[in-house]
UniProtKB/TrEMBL annotation:
Pfam families: LCIB_C_CA (PF18599). It comes from the Eukaryota. This is Limiting CO2-inducible protein B/C beta carbonyic anhydrase domain-containing protein. PANTHER family: LIMITING CO2-INDUCIBLE PROTEIN B_C BETA CARBONYIC ANHYDRASE DOMAIN-CONTAINING PROTEIN (PTHR38016:SF1), UNNAMED PRODUCT (PTHR38016). It comes from Coccomyxa viridis. InterPro entries: LCIB/C_CA (IPR040703). Residues 93-331 form the Limiting CO2-inducible protein B/C beta carbonyic anhydrase domain. Residues 378-399 are annotated as: Disordered.
């Protein structure tokens, strides 16, 4: 079977870009290895047109590599190129495992561990954010989530207070410790397409973040003024989404933006605006819930979660996850200290592999031990490890294995000349035996009762108050 490294050395069009050759002439590849790179003319390889209109012949460094010797460098080069593509939009982006390990080191220095802190995670509701949630739960223990569409905070002080009240209490100092983590998200797929995300079992591509993408489109279509509603005002059938739109619109207006500026905004712009806005909202909620330095120490980490997956969920391109941290600080005994995670060295691939695999579930560990797993340095920026969703049924490996089995049985059906039919025809099987009468009357519905009550007694303004309460 073809290895990942072998396959990426073959001339697939989207991999034949000048960035792929850069590491071979830079610090990634030791000088003695450069002799393995010969010019395209020497190799007799036809020049390949790239997206920038530069041929690989023109770079003079067409890699012709003994695969058995330098596969590891091809993986590094590939991961470096993927990282540079992300860095065009998010210069601080590093691999998610690398980010969490650096963060753990930094917070440990200020007294925060998974044992003595509660993590307060805030992300979009999208299931693909669960990958980050699972990873940070491994580091900080099960987190209290305040998720909303696009990452918008709608839980209010009651929601935040609930999470804080679950914190461990240090035996010595009696202090509580909170780690607030807030990450709106975006997808930039392996080809660099903004917003495009492949999902397991779903053909084609969808969008991440769909809520931010839709909010940007709506604000562009209706203008800032229409979306700058009174704080807290929202649409009853769309509470989170309407609050998300008004928070974004108010922030754009606050930053001096106008309707004319909206035309040039793309998904990256609105994601960065969302990150700043949600951080502001989070800090305001913190100010309303933590009122005394003696109450607790806490850390605030805000950034953007970036899904950099293949164009198809289970094609050969590794699904990579990045975090672009923007604001990281601790408040210990009332004193705020900003932290620079880039000043902490990246972990080696072996360290990332060991830390990530040993903490994962048994199912994941089996996947992690698979030799096809991608885990390597991306230049001197970060270390990357391919991700799988935190459940094995939709992992790349399980889906490939299922297809392989299906192929075997399809062949057996043909070879053994079997007649196939639907084993469980619908309806008429066991489904008919478990059907039951309805559990409640249609009229027994609080929404129906509320709507009729609003219409007849309270009037429009009072109805609005109900939903604002
Ligand atoms: Zn989303």
């Amino acid at each position: 079977m073809q290895s990942m490294a072998e396959s990426i050395l073959q001339p697939r069009p989207h991999l034949c870009q000048p960035r792929l050759t850069i590491p071979y002439s830079s610090n990634v590849l030791p000088a003695k290895r450069r002799s393995l790179c010969i010019s395209a003319q020497q190799s007799g390889t036809a020049p390949t047109k790239t997206e920038n209109g530069v041929t690989q012949q023109q770079t003079g460094l067409q890699p012709l590599i003994g695969r058995q010797k330098v596969d590891m460098y091809a993986e590094q080069a590939y991961l470096t190129a993927r990282t540079r593509r992300i860095a065009q939009h998010f210069p601080t982006a590093i691999g998610v495992d690398d980010f969490l390990n650096r963060l753990e080191v930094a917070l440990f220095a200020y007294g925060f561990t998974g044992d003595n802190s509660i993590a307060m995670s805030n992300m979009c509701r999208d299931e693909i954010t669960g990958i980050l949630k699972t990873k940070l739960d491994i580091v900080f223990g099960s987190s209290f989530n305040t998720n909303g569409l696009g990452g918008v905070l709608t839980c209010g002080v009651t929601g935040v207070k609930a999470g804080l009240s679950h914190s461990p209490i240090s035996a010595g100092s009696g202090k509580e410790r909170y780690v607030f983590l807030s990450f709106p998200h975006i997808s930039v797929d392996a080809m660099g397409t903004l917003g495009a995300i492949s999902r397991p079992g779903r053909p084609g591509q969808s969008c991440a973040c769909g809520a931010l993408n839709a909010a940007l489109a709506d604000i562009k279509a209706t203008g800032l003024k229409a979306n700058c509603k009174r704080p807290g005002e929202h649409e009853p059938l769309d509470p989170e989404y309407s609050i998300l739109k008004q928070r974004l619109a108010r922030r754009i207006r606050h930053d001096g933006g106008t309707d004319a500026d909206l035309a040039n905004m793309d998904l990256v712009d609105i994601t960065k605006i969302a990150e700043r806005t949600i951080l502001d909202d989070l800090e305001y909620l913190i100010s309303q819930t933590i009122t005394s330095p003696s109450q607790a120490d806490y850390a605030v980490i805000s950034g953007v979660q970036i899904h950099n997956w293949g164009q198809s969920f289970d094609n050969q391109s590794p699904n990579l996850e990045y975090i672009a941290p923007s604001t990281v600080y601790t408040v210990v005994a009332g004193e705020r200290t900003y932290l620079d995670l880039n000043s902490i060295p990246q972990l080696t691939p072996r360290q990332i592999r060991v830390l990530s695999s040993s903490a994962a579930s048994p199912e994941s560990s089996q996947i992690d031990s698979n030799l096809d797993e991608v885990c390597g340095s991306a230049g001197d920026t970060t270390t990357l490890r391919s991700v799988e969703p935190p459940y094995s049924y939709s992992s790349k490996e399980s889906r490939r294995a299922a297809r392989k089995r299906a192929g075997i049985f399809a062949q057996l059906i043909e070879e053994e000349n079997l007649q196939i039919s639907n084993a469980s025809p619908w309806p008429g099987g066991w489904q008919s035996r478990i059907s039951a009468k309805t559990h409640k009357l249609e009229s027994d519905n609080s929404c129906t009762a509320e709507a009729s009550s609003n219409d007849s007694i309270l009037g429009d303004s009072a109805a609005e108050d109900i939903f604002l309460a």
